Amino acid sequence: MTAARLDGTAMARELRAGFASRVERLAAAGVRPGLAVILVGDDPASQVYVRNKVQACEAIGIRSDRFVFAADAAPAEVLDRIGALNADPQVHGILVQLPLPKHFDEQQVLEVIGAEKDVDGFHRDNVGALSQGRPRFVPCTPRGVLAMLDAAGVELRGKEAVVVGRSNIVGKPMAQLLTARDATVTVCHSRTADLATHTRRADVLVVAAGRPRMVTADMIKPGAVVVDVGIHRGAEGRLCGDVDYDGCRTVASLISPVPGGVGPMTITMLLGNTLDAAERRAALG
Length: 285
Ligand code: NAD
Prior knowledge:
The structure is a single chain. The chain is built from ten helices and eleven strands. It is an alpha/beta fold. The protein has a six-stranded parallel sheet. Strands 3-2-4 form a three-stranded parallel sheet, sandwiched between helices. Helix 1 (8-28) packs parallel to helix 10 (262-281) and helix 6 crosses helix 7. Helix 2 (44-60) links the parallel strand 2 (34-40) and strand 3. It starts with a strand and ends with a helix. The chain has two domains: 30-114, 3-Layer(aba) Sandwich (Rossmann fold); 139-263, Rossmann fold. The protein is globular, with a radius of gyration of 19 Å. It has helices at 8-28, 44-60, 75-87, 106-112, 124-131, 140-151, 171-180, 195-199, 245-248, 262-281, and strands at residues 4-5, 34-40, 63-69, 93-96, 160-164, 184-188, 204-207, 225-228, 232-233, 239-240, 254-255. It binds nicotinamide-adenine-dinucleotide (NAD). Residues 141, 164-167, 169-171, 188-190, 192, 195, 208-211, 214, 229-231, 262-263, 266 line the site of nicotinamide-adenine-dinucleotide.
């Protein structure tokens, strides 16, 4: 068997094309959606992520303002800026690029963002709303994975879904989204004994462990749908994921590549969340 590819680039292009009419509808109501992106420090990967987010916004007509702080900025400076952005009616979404420098308390910073502008979905109000099954802002990566599965017509009801990773930004919300869609969900993590016995049961396997090519062909069930969230820059700058793509595509039925899989979907969901925020404020949603 050779798996079909879950082409995140093509799916993202289609979804973004569909956003144009939402931007036009907002414009007709006198609203230009706006996203504020805060970057602290000079981590090169974060700089690339922020640049990509800003460009993606501008390409569909979302205004995007970048606020850059030095690596040794005082937390109060950043908190003050967030306070000002919370009060600014032109700003519909606020995003703080993670990770923050060590002297910041990340959760404290995330809680200061107004929950109605929290387009990353990390504020505890939004985390709670998702866990209660009445989501407002869903974190972009798991939302993107679900959109990908939907676009490919993957049935989730009654299926065995296994999520590898239990982070607040990917694994936990992913498990909640899959549960809400009636999959039977197992969450694995760094202390899971015999990971492969779990992954081999999965009809749908989502891997977000942050370990290059950790999931190999012998760990997946024939015909499984495999979504690889991981992203790593290897030797010579080549990107790879948490899944051994070449090996696993001979066993799976559908598999997402890295690059060109979850990454473009994540940014697309950020655009979607920002439009949701603007529509809600304009009472168009
Ligand atoms: P994280 O480090 O916060 O969490 C990793 C999780 O994996 C932890 O819960 C840990 O318990 C688990 N884990 C680690 N080693 C394991 C092992 N050997 N077996 C089973 N579980 C194990 O990472 P994260 O923020 O959730 O990100 C995971 C990966 O996804 C990273 O590679 C990250 O770069 C990538 N990522 C990609 C996107 C995207 O848009 N494509 C977005 C977010 C994160």
